[in-house]
TrEMBL record:
It comes from the Bacteria. Gene3D superfamilies: 1.10.3730.20. It is a multi-pass membrane protein. The chain crosses the membrane at residues 7-29, 41-58, 70-91, 97-120, 132-153, 159-175, 187-205, 217-240, 252-270, 276-294. Residues 7-145, 160-293 form the EamA domain. It is found in: Cell membrane. InterPro entries: AA-Vitamin_Transporters (IPR050638), EamA_dom (IPR000620), EmrE-like (IPR037185). Belongs to the EamA transporter family. Keywords: Cell membrane, Membrane, Transmembrane, Transmembrane helix. This is EamA domain-containing protein.
Length: 308
């Protein structure tokens, strides 16, 4: 049991570190090439989707079973386009027009939106810690956007828009496929979600040409692209795998090192600079996520007040 727990801790910490590293790598990739975020995402989704589905085939899983269920297939297509494609495009575009840390922190607003949605759906007011988490996230978002001054907004309107769409996309990406994942498993749904989303974006993106795409690459930039895809896919598989050995609460808390890694790498490697209030805002958002992952019994022992 102890060895299994150590393996789970290694997997989640490694996965979160790799995911935090992938954001700065994507930003560096955009700085070194002229490729658009849409063209990049086409390749990323297609290759990652094929990689995951081939991985399942090596495990002798029937990846085509879900295609025999029309209702589930419809929900899969909706998830692939609005969830997988929508969330990833918003995240990649935020990285493209801003930076990796900003995109990562906006993504971390997702759990807060999920909490609000669930409270509305269940017609039940959030608990004390959930209220504190929402309040902390709002303060953090304010600091990130304004750097402490409402008269000095440091982000463009496009960055704020795509950042918020990243949070909304993450929320839909998490909530919509719940029944599909219970029925078919996370890896299968994610694999098909990436492949279908990539195909849909390829069809939509009329300007994409494989020949022109390949001509924009050198060996080093193409290698970097493959590395980013491998890191992103591997980090996801490690995160999913850690759930076999750790609770969802533990994995959620430990995954909070992701924005820390993204910040450290961006400052030391990409020479990004952030205001004091922006860094404080990032800390507030991470604290909000930690609040949301605390179990109910901890909430009651720490705060004597009942739910609001």
């Amino acid at each position: 049991m102890q060895n299994s727990r150590r393996l789970g801790l290694f997997m989640i910490l490694t996965g979160a570190t790799l995911w935090g590293l992938s954001g700065p790598l994507i930003q560096w990739f955009f700085q070194r090439t002229t490729i658009s975020s849409i063209d990049y995402l086409v390749i990323r989704l297609l290759l990652a989707g094929v990689f995951i589905l081939c991985f399942l085939l090596t495990k002798k899983q029937n990846i085509f079973r879900i295609w025999q269920q029309p209702v589930h297939l419809l929900h899969l297509i909706i998830f692939s386009i609005l969830g997988m494609l929508g969330a990833q495009y918003a995240f990649i575009e935020t990285v493209h027009i801003s930076n990796a840390v900003t995109a990562t922190l906006f993504q971390f607003l997702g759990p807060v939106l999920i909490t609000i949605y669930v409270a509305i759906q269940n017609k039940k007011l959030p608990s004390t810690l959930q209220v504190l988490a929402i309040f902390s996230a709002l303060i953090g978002t304010y600091f990130i956007i304004t750097n402490g001054s409402a008269h000095n907004i440091v982000m463009s309107k496009e960055t704020i828009l795509f950042g918020l769409l990243t949070a909304i996309g993450f929320t839909f990406y998490t909530l919509h496929p719940t029944s599909l994942i219970q029925q078919w498993g996370t890896t299968l749904i994610i694999g098909w979600g990436m492949l279908i989303g990539g195909i849909a974006l390829f069809i939509y993106n009329h300007s994409f040409e494989w020949k022109q795409f390949s001509q924009t690459f050198t060996l080093s930039t193409f290698s970097l692209l493959i590395l980013i895809i491998i890191i992103g896919t591997l980090s996801f598989l490690l995160y999913i795998g850690s759930l076999k050995y750790l609770s969802a609460t533990e994995t959620s808390i430990l995954s909070s090192i992701e924005p820390l890694v993204a910040t450290i790498v961006s400052i030391t490697w990409l020479k990004e600079s952030f205001g004091v209030y922006q860094l404080l805002g990032g800390i507030c958002i991470v604290i909000a996520v930690i609040f949301l992952t605390m179990p109910e019994k901890v909430t009651k022992s720490t705060f004597t007040t009942e739910q609001i």
